[in-house]
Amino acid sequence: MNGTACASLIVMLSVALTGCNRSPQQSSTPKPAPVATTAPEKPAGARAYSDQDISDAWIYLLGRLLVLRQQKADLAEGMKWNEIAHRKPGAVDWPNPNLDVAYSEAWVAVDENSCTVVTVPKISGRYYTVQFLNGWGETVANINERTQPAQPSGEFAICLTGAAAALPKGVTRIDVPVKYMRMLARVELGDDWNQAVSLQHKFALRATGAPGTPSLPPVVAFDQQHLPGADAFDNVVQVLDSERDINPGMEPVAAKARAIGAGIQDPAERARVERVVREKAQRDLLKASPTVGHGTLRNGWARPAVAGTYGDDWLGRTLVNMGGIWANRMDEVVYYKGNLDSTGTQLNGDNAYTMTFPKDALPPSYADYFWSVIAVDPVFARVLPNPKNRFLLNRESGLKHNADGSLTLYFAPEKPSDAPDQNWLPTPKGKDYRLTFRFYGPKLGVKDGTYYPPELLKQPTQR
Fold first, then answer.
1. How far apart (Å, rounded) are the C-alpha atoms in residues 454 and 447?
2. Helix, strand or coil, per DSSP, at residue 23
3. pTM exceeding the 0.70 threshold for the entire prediction
4. Which of 11, 198, 422, 434 is 20 to 30 A (C-alpha) from 149?
5. Which helix (H) or strand (E) covers residue 67, if one does?
6. Contact of 334 with 439, CB cutoff 8 Å
7. What spatial distance separates the first Cα and last Cα of the chain, rounded to whole Å?
8. What is the pLDDT of residue 13?
9. CB count, 10 Å around CB of 369?
């Protein structure tokens, strides 16, 4: 594949960022070798795995590399273990951020003798959660009113399962299966950002002892436009050993990744793996994009089958980590990705689009907490700038309903003449983009998977 074709492939993959079906590899019993043969024996690496095995192992490993890359970047920029960093609203640098909340972040370490205590302030009438994820992007705990209804505020000790740490009286213990985690605290901004930020700064962390911290393995440099090839398997043993995969059923594909790491020590085999990654694995990832792995596509919106916790769906996990790292569980929030209009055509800022919610199916009907929609670029999934500095539509936007009670949202580079200003989200003229729709506290059809946002209708060009 030439450079232009490769770049186009990665852009297409990132635009859709929705996923492909993977089929488990069928095991077979090798036939006995002939008693006598003059043919030279193939290298062990070459006969240990197929081209499909290379594709599966590469996609699987990429999910871990995405998190590890972010971890190394965070620590290089000054984040400290078990020290919380409170971010200004909107001031986070990862794909597909939630602009409805103020974020606080930390890398958390615990061990057999030390827990980390999280202080959660009392918050009423405003959504919040403290999320913990492992090194594969799996959510291992949330602290909020939903998970701790009897005592949603106070002090909570995050402890390694079986840890013999002594805890102060009144601390609620929460056991997790891993020693090292990414923590994200979210506080809904609502219509009073100052109060939200004040509450955000009351979250705190402290370790009860002196837990060890990991030695992180080297990671090949890459981004969404320049994904790794065979070099993804360099240091594969150290990468996989640095963070065990907690999900049962992942052992076979992890074993293939290890075998490929050994195989590429042979230059000819490395060239083969490089070719298969570029010509097959990346295309397999592209084929996965329309439905975020095993998810579904309806009305131009993709609803992933998994997010935050993944079971044995390594394909869905890698796609979610690429397009929206730090995704939470689907009982906490459901994300819809939209990059197609009602005709199946890619959204582009040269056009104006509308989506209309019937009066009996308005967005608040499907969220216990809040909803929002944002526009992001199709490659890096970063929020798109615009002269109006308006980056989302939500319940605080002062949306104007139609005379019949329905609600129409507008997406266009310039405000359509018939659009209430507050219902308009500016989009980048001449550029492709995609939308992310969030429902926090999903309920009804969003919760059970039967609901999809309305389709996006391309409007006639205004003269």
1. 16
2. coil
3. yes
4. 198
5. helix 51-76
6. yes
7. 43
8. 45
9. 23
